[in-house]
């Protein structure tokens, strides 16, 4: 296992930071009223890459001046590796601090923005434990998985326009609701609003036809935490026959820092054994998942946080590379900035469930918070926080928090 890479940025050497030199995640920030610009997190600091490139101490073909990472991603893998190498050299403990030191600012003084323009958004249903749990609730254990589930990563096309950055408040949605005992649907605020703990994979290279899983793996620039907010009561009424629509259109929250595939390379792991062999076009030539510890925290308004779930990205049945490769099989073009949601990441135990639908078993088993309150779904004022980090030898490669607070429905 790789060990901590020491940096002259002292805070980057703490075992508790999400952002050691091993990580170097990319984001977009603003400070002092200036326009948003590209930066990299290092310890409790942000290195202003726009000003560093303008000063000539970092080079990336001018793409760091754009206030988004799309133009840089489009440069390709050689440019990705080159910038990471420049930053690793310049921020390492044996480097002279002066060239980059003047471009640092405290992260606490900055506002974080969407790090890239989302071209398209596709969400998958690719976690075995989640699919088994949800299917059991609605169809019984013997019919929990649809017939196609063990053969292909199931997905649906979501709304790129609804993807928001961590810290954005979420408004409880209205929609058509029809309970099992209702004679007719009614229009009302969702009463069963939920989260889904996911990872998001960011496509960094375009493709205009089918690509292999290996090519797909190389085309993924990096990863974010992703919260797929879900109105379960709207979903229950609308989803047949074409699947989720308005139930998933309220918002999708992502964490602010893009953790690159290069930073996660030491944590690669294989997808699980399969009782049904996959067709050749979905075969993985090597480990293409990652060992990333994940958790969900729930904080009631004016209350304290309770961690309600812990799981790991390694629980996924299909990797992001398999999802991307499958996405292209019809000839569907993929673009720089496409975002792929993994699907809910749950584990085998009750404490590993990545949605409130599962934790409360459809609302039938309310769970307790640390202050004695109980929940089945999210109440107004509740704050949901997703966290994740790959744990190394004396360091962690983290994503920063993915946070959203639910506000009351508009009247």
From TrEMBL:
Mg(2+) binds at residues 228, 248, 252. Residues 22-115 form the Fumarylacetoacetase N-terminal domain. Pfam families: FAA_hydrolase (PF01557), FAA_hydrolase_N (PF09298). GO terms for molecular function: fumarylacetoacetase activity; metal ion binding. The active site is at residue 130. The keyword S-adenosyl-L-methionine does not apply. Its EC number is 3.7.1.2. Pathway: Amino-acid degradation; L-phenylalanine degradation; acetoacetate and fumarate from L-phenylalanine: step 6/6. Keywords: Calcium, Hydrolase, Magnesium, Metal-binding, Phenylalanine catabolism, Tyrosine catabolism. Ca(2+) binds at residues 123, 196, 198, 228. One of its GO terms (biological process) is homogentisate catabolic process. Its cofactor is Ca(2+); Mg(2+). Residues 121-393 form the Fumarylacetoacetase-like C-terminal domain. It is an enzyme of class 3 (hydrolase). Substrate binds at residues 125, 139, 235, 239, 344. The keyword Metal-binding applies. It comes from the Bacteria. This is fumarylacetoacetase. It comes from Actibacterium mucosum KCTC 23349.
């Amino acid at each position: 296992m790789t060990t901590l890479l020491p940096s002259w940025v002292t805070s980057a050497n703490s075992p508790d930071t999400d952002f050691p030199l091993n990580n170097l995640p990319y984001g977009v920030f603003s400070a002092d009223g200036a326009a948003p610009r590209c930066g990299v997190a290092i310890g409790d600091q942000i290195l202003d890459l726009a000003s560093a490139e303008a000063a000539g101490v970092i080079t990336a073909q001018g793409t760091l001046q754009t206030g988004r990472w799309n133009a840089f991603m489009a440069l390709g893998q050689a440019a990705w590796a080159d910038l990471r190498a420049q930053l690793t050299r310049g921020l390492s403990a044996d480097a002279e601090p002066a060239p980059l030191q003047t471009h640092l600012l405290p992260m606490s003084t900055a506002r974080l923005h969407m790090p890239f323009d989302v071209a398209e958004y596709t969400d998958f249903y690719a976690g075995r434990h989640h699919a088994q749990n949800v299917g059991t609730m609605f169809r019984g254990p013997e019919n929990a998985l649809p017939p196609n589930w063990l053969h292909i990563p199931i997905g649906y096309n979501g709304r790129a326009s609804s993807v928001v950055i961590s810290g954005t408040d979420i408004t409880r949605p209205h929609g058509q609701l029809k309970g099992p005992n209702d004679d007719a649907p009614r229009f009302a605020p969702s009463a069963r609003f939920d989260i889904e703990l996911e990872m998001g994979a960011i496509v960094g290279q375009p493709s205009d036809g089918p690509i292999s899983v290996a090519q797909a793996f190389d085309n993924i620039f990096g990863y974010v935490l992703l919260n797929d907010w879900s109105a379960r009561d709207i979903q229950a009424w609308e989803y047949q026959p074409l699947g989720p629509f308005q139930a998933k259109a309220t918002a999708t929250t992502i964490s602010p820092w893009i953790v690159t595939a290069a930073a996660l390379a030491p944590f690669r792991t294989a997808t699980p054994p399969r009782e049904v062999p996959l067709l050749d076009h979905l075969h993985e030539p090597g480990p293409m998942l990652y060992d990333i510890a994940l958790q969900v925290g729930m904080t009631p308004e004016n209350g304290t946080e309770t961690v309600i779930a812990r799981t790991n990205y390694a629980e996924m049945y299909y990797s992001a590379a398999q999802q991307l490769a499958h996405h292209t099989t019809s000839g569907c073009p993929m673009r720089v900035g496409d975002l792929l949601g993994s699907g809910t990441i749950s584990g085998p135990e009750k404490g590993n469930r990545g949605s409130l639908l599962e934790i409360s078993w459809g609302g039938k088993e309310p769970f307790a918070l640390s202050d004695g309150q109980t929940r089945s779904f999210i109440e107004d004022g509740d704050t949901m926080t997703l966290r994740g980090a790959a744990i190394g030898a004396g360091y962690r490669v983290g994503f920063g928090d993915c946070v959203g607070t639910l506000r009351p429905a508009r009247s």
